[in-house]
Amino acid sequence: MNVNRTTNFRLRQRLHETNTVSDRPRCGRPRCTTQRQDRNLVRNHMNNRFLSASASSRHTRERNNQRISANTVRRRLTTSGLRARRPYIGPILTQRLRHQRTLWAQEHAAWDRIQWRSVVLSDESRFYMDHADGHVHVCRRTGERYQADCVREHDRWSGASLMMCCCTGSPKGAYTLLAGACLDL
């Protein structure tokens, strides 16, 4: 049977004592949620990926009509493969914008160094004054980072902000540094 002799002996002894080989009841606190409630928790977090465990625990009641803790919600989600992680934060991209970006990349994929020399590359950073960036978590499984409902989209041009710009490159090959700030109200 490819089982240890001690295991075989204990199973036989339990069969003679209790007429079954199933495990005996163990000590410890019983589960406060049913399997149906666990499935509902997972379904709610799959429908709203940015729902926090504490917000979910406020709406879920255990068998004796008391609230369950946020740690219980986290444990139930972890057993189903969902974990709270930092979301990928990206711009709002419609299908049309994705298509246009793909076309641009395909058109410029074969450019050589001489063609790129006539391009000025710039970078800009915007610092928001109306709202903080904040730490938001998303419930997702491994490998779902870039899935559409796991991405936290942000509108880059809303509210008051401070913008810093920097440019490098010129047609002659010399580097130019331009720094500026503009206040959008």
Automatic annotation (TrEMBL):
<dbReference type="InterPro" id="IPR002492">
    <property type="entry name" value="Transposase_Tc1-like"/>
</dbReference>
<feature type="domain" description="Transposase Tc1-like">
    <location>
        <begin position="38"/>
        <end position="109"/>
    </location>
</feature>
<dbReference type="GO" id="GO:0003677">
    <property type="term" value="F:DNA binding"/>
</dbReference>
<protein>
    <submittedName>
        <fullName>Transposase domain containing protein</fullName>
    </submittedName>
</protein>
<dbReference type="InterPro" id="IPR036397">
    <property type="entry name" value="RNaseH_sf"/>
</dbReference>
<dbReference type="GO" id="GO:0006313">
    <property type="term" value="P:DNA transposition"/>
</dbReference>
<dbReference type="Pfam" id="PF01498">
    <property type="entry name" value="HTH_Tnp_Tc3_2"/>
</dbReference>
<dbReference type="GO" id="GO:0015074">
    <property type="term" value="P:DNA integration"/>
</dbReference>
